[in-house]
Predict the 3D structure of the following.
Amino acid sequence: MHIYSTLSVSRKEKFNCEEIAEYLSKLGQITSIVSTISTQPGIEYGCRITQSSIQTKEEIKNTWEQLRDKYKFSCGHIDINIDLTKKYNGCILDYLYK
């Protein structure tokens, strides 16, 4: 089974996606990270974190909890595909804890 996930996190205060990349790299995570700016309608700064080497839902949970705790994110949006089939697209909290 091949799990491919994209986690988008954002907040109103600017933050550095390169720092998040360095943090995840130190944890041994293989990711691709892109900086984003969105309007909600106010400006939010964020990162889109893509992982293609995940094997379990527990790995997604571990990544989320590490990012949440270190960077004080309250929620994120996740898009998950398993073996090239879309399985979930929505709030990471709903995916992990409901």
In short: The radius of gyration is 13 Å. The chain has a mean pLDDT of 91.
